[in-house]
Each structure stands twice: as structure tokens, then as C-alpha cells.
Specification:
- The protein is an alpha+beta fold.
- The protein is built from 9 helices and 8 strands.
- It has one domain: Alpha-Beta Plaits (2-Layer Sandwich).
- Helices cover 38% and strands 24% of the residues.
- The longest helix has 26 residues, at 218-243.
Length: 299
């Protein structure tokens, strides 16, 4: 990870997608809202092994669709940074996390072929890191408008803090959210605070995008946002960047539906993108006409 101490980098934590014009609101898809609790599994694997991992995980995902697995996940494939994937597993509570964890053991025991494929994925890994984070409703911006089923890309920002600076980071989020509101931005982001699995206080910011071109207009509105923050806000952000932030890392991921396992309710208006569809059974080759064969042999 790269150490980030200056104000410009702090602002770019969020200035990664453009401000969109106001849109008509559509009915919320509650099944695709950012979850209360998310289990994040970060996996690093060697270059050249992505196709092998994909083969295993596609088969596991299709089988889980048929068999009713204990929990769901969204698979995110890195477009920047190291060869990496993130499994984004949504839950309502820690209790649900524990219940799913207990149910996966007998599920794999009942389906040893899936257990072998999971072992195949594990054998490919260079490193794996698992953490659990809780949604901070007081820190996001328009998070209630996020429909994860519409995401095709995800920018993920990890902010690692020096111990004791959680309140400073929260203040920075609120300053930026207030600036977004002043310029009537329609770019939602959701913030999670890691409770388990990180050695230092950590926040993770998720910015879902439907298209990569949403990054193109960054410079066009950057100055408007800086002005909306005001002099005092900019000075506060500079201080927090110097004093509170140990390291930050921002990477871009592509959503991989074929390696994900989501509910039909989650898939919502676009099941063709999310849900796995089995190929139709191949028709057998027609048997050769014996008369025609005889004719050809007589020539």
C-alpha cells in the first residue's frame, strides 16, 4: 500500500467517479441495498492462474444456484493493482455470519465435489485475508440510493488509520458528504468500518459504477467540490490527512456475475446479467442415411 498524507490524495479518495445529473428516482431494490454487515475475502493469486480459478469458481457458483448454498457473494476482479479478487459477502448481522459459517461445513460435506473445487481454488492462492465490516450510515453519501445489482464496476478504497483517529476519519467523511450535498452531487458511496480482521483501525469505501466512463468527468467538477468544502473544511481535511491516515489504497474492480452467487430478488431487473443460465442440451448428431452411404461407396 502507498502512504498518502497530502490533501489532494485525501480528496481523491472520493473524487473517483463523476457527479451525475439528477435522475428520476425508481423504486428501491431492498435485496440489493448495501448490507449491514459485509464479509470481505481478499485473495491474491499468481499471474496466469486467473483462468484456472475462474473455471473452479464458475462451477461452484452454478452448483450453489441449484443447491441453495448457505450464503451469497459478489465476486470482484481487479482491474488495477495486483492480480486480486474480492468476495463481497452480504449479511444482515454477525449472527447471520455465524449461522452461514456453521452451515457451510455440512454443505461441503454433503457435496464433496464442491469441496474439492474449493480446495483447488485454495491451492492457487498466494495470500488470503478475511475481514468483517459494519456499515456506517452516518458517514456515507446517498448510500440509501445504491442498488448493488446495477453495479458493473466497483472502486474500493481502504483507509488505514493510526490508532485512536477513528473520529478524525469520520469528520473527514462528513465534510466531504456535506460538500457533495452543496453541489447536489448524485454520486453515492457507502462506508464500512472494519471490526475484525485488520491490524489497525480501517474504513473501506465502496463506490459502485454502472460504466467505466463515469470516471471521465473528474476534472470538470473538481473545482466546484473544492469550493464547496470551504477554507475551513480544506484545512481540516489537510490536518486529518497528515495526522490520522497511515496508508490508503484505491483499486478498481469489475463485477463478475458468472463467479458470483446472488438471490433472484437481488438480480432484480437484470436477471440475464446476474443469474446463471444452463446451456440447452446439445442435440445428438443425426444418424447417417445408410442408403446415402451405400451410394457414396459405389462411386
Amino acid at each position: 500500500m502507498r502512504v498518502s498524507r497530502n490533501f489532494a490524495v485525501l480528496v481523491l479518495i472520493f473524487l473517483s467517479v463523476p457527479i451525475l445529473s439528477a435522475q428520476d428516482k425508481k423504486p428501491a431494490n431492498d435485496a440489493a441495498a448495501p448490507p449491514n454487515v459485509v464479509l470481505l475475502v481478499n485473495q491474491d493469486f499468481p499471474a496466469g492462474k486467473a483462468a484456472e480459478r475462474q473455471k473452479f469458481l464458475v462451477n461452484i457458483s452454478r452448483a450453489c444456484d441449484r443447491l441453495g448454498a448457505p450464503s451469497y457473494w459478489i465476486d470482484l476482479q481487479s482491474l488495477t493493482g495486483t492480480q486480486q479478487a474480492i468476495s463481497f459477502d452480504p449479511f444482515d448481522s454477525y449472527e447471520q455470519v455465524g449461522q452461514a459459517n456453521a452451515e457451510w461445513r455440512p454443505f461441503f460435506a454433503a457435496h464433496p465435489d464442491l469441496a474439492r473445487m474449493q480446495d483447488g481454488i485454495d491451492a492457487l492462492l498466494l495470500n488470503q485475508r478475511t475481514s468483517i465490516a459494519v456499515r456506517r450510515d452516518d458517514l456515507g453519501y446517498l448510500a440509501e440510493a445504491i442498488d448493488l445489482s446495477e453495479a458493473r464496476y466497483m472502486r474500493v478504497r481502504e483507509i488505514h488509520l493510526f490508532p485512536g483517529h477513528e473520529n478524525d476519519a469520520a469528520e473527514a467523511f462528513k465534510i466531504l458528504a456535506d460538500a457533495y450535498a452543496k453541489i447536489q452531487a448524485d454520486t453515492p458511496w457507502v462506508v464500512y468500518e472494519v471490526n475484525v480482521g485488520m491490524p489497525s483501525p480501517t474504513f473501506v469505501v465502496f463506490l459502485p459504477m454502472s460504466e467505466l466512463r463515469q470516471n471521465d468527468d473528474l476534472l470538470a467538477w473538481n473545482l466546484d467540490l473544492m469550493e464547496a468544502e470551504g477554507e475551513q473544511g480544506r484545512e481540516t481535511l489537510q490536518r486529518i490527512a497528515r495526522e490520522a491516515y497511515a496508508t490508503t489504497e484505491s483499486n478498481l474492480y469489475a463485477v463478475s456475475p458468472e463467479m458470483s452467487h446472488v438471490s433472484k430478488d437481488f438480480a432484480g431487473a437484470d436477471p440475464d446479467f446476474w443469474l446463471h443460465h444452463e446451456a440447452p442440451d446439445a442435440k445428438p448428431d443425426p444418424k447417417p442415411d445408410p442408403k446415402a452411404t451405400a451410394k457414396r461407396s459405389n462411386k
